[in-house]
Amino acid sequence: MVIATKQEQTKFWQVPEADNLELLRATYIRHHFSRHIHETFAIGVIQQGAEVFDYRGTTHIAPAGSIVLINPGEPHTGHAADPSGWTYRMLYPPVGLLQRSVVEAMRGVPAIAFPEPIVHDPILVGWMVRSHQALEVAAPQLEQESRLLWVLTQVVARHAETRPRLRSPGKETRSIQQVRQYLEAHYAENISLEELAAIANLSPFYLLRVFRQQVGLPPHGYLNQVRLRQAKHLLMKGWAIAQVAHQTGFADQSHLTRQFKRTWGITPGQYQQQRNSVQDGGARLPLL
What we know:
Elements: E1 2-5, E2 8-15, E3 21-28, E4 32-36, E5 42-55, E6 58-63, E7 67-70, E8 76-80, E9 86-92, H1 95-101, H2 103-106, E10 118-119, H3 122-136, H4 141-159, H5 173-185, H6 193-200, H7 204-215, H8 219-236, H9 241-247, H10 253-264, H11 268-279
Antiparallel strand pairs: 1-2, 2-3, 3-9, 4-8, 5-6, 5-7, 5-8, 5-9, 7-10
């Protein structure tokens, strides 16, 4: 649902597969939130402008690039710091979802709470924005699950009142090789993080950490590379771009085109044209 009035715009949606996780992307100019509470956590990134809010008896100003962390049941307000307004992305994870996300790392640690309502953590900001965007555009299941689990665990590990100590990832070479082989054999399928964790016999979050360490990419990033590699082979054979997208697991032709251009620097159509030029004796295609 998108609602726009002049310069203000809001988009609100839910992710049923993640305990009906609620998300909001909004730009507010004149809007003032009255004092209210959430049953969930409120975790967000200020992308432009600044937000002012009253919380725990103090007025806070959250500038662009900062993260806002509001605990469940805590009354707070919200409005723009100046006439230009503010733009932000918010997640509202239920308590149970956040607890389950960090169960591996927490290991019996007491209830989760954030002591500071505003934190500055550029690395986490990047993770949060990319996760929020993946959930907004209905990215592949593996990417959505991986990014969300990573963000929820990291926000607790880095900023909760009681922070878990994450054990150093081991080698797990055989498990990671099995996951890579599965991704290469089933690249066109809508693979879930739980599937991969079961194959590796590792917990989902630990799998993410070990895979990143050994491969240099998260599982969804590796899957994307496999799909793009297969897409190149089919494009070389002259397949239609829409057919290639469907055959290699991309949502549609536009999704393939965005990923292809981001990785190789040219679109699938340009790639085919240059390949044809080479075959016809034209200019040599740069190696990709």
